[in-house]
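hey m, so remember when u said the tokens were messed up on ur end? i reran from scratch. heres the input so u can diff it against urs
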Amino acid sequence: MNKSLQLYQFNLWANSKVFEQLNSLPTEMYRKEVDSVFPSVADVLIHMYQVDYVWLKALKGEKFEDILASVKPIYQELKEADLNDLQNKFEKMGSDYETFMLQKVDLSQETTVHHPHFGTLHSSYNDLIQHIVNHGTYHRGHISAILNQLGHKGASTDYIFYLYSLQHQN
């Protein structure tokens, strides 16, 4: 299996574990505010979704100015979404990413991203996918920290646990 696809499937697995954990908690934990980097679990998930949305469009070659303009209208929809709605959106986005990767002949191919603030980046699809996965890992840590502040355990989403889960499937 392509390493980038495997890393992205880890990302999907880890997000699934987070949603599984959140669904086992009292409903109010999703929007409960804390003094942290993000004010709530909902805010972290909305940020994660928006960034995944932006990068999928960038991978597909859309212009950043157009992408950013398209993010604003979905923000209010995301703010109003309940946990189940957001989980469904994450699953659909994950499916869209997998479709994109499976249709790409060579993920080591170079691409160029023109960002209005950071400039032009020449990178491989593989490197950008790794960035997307790293971004998700980073913010799942925020969710665990928020849950800990609220007296609950976060989901175990380390890559090694994903590898063990693959081994147990066989």
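this time it looks ok to me. The mean pLDDT is 95. if urs says something different then somethings off w ur setup not the seq
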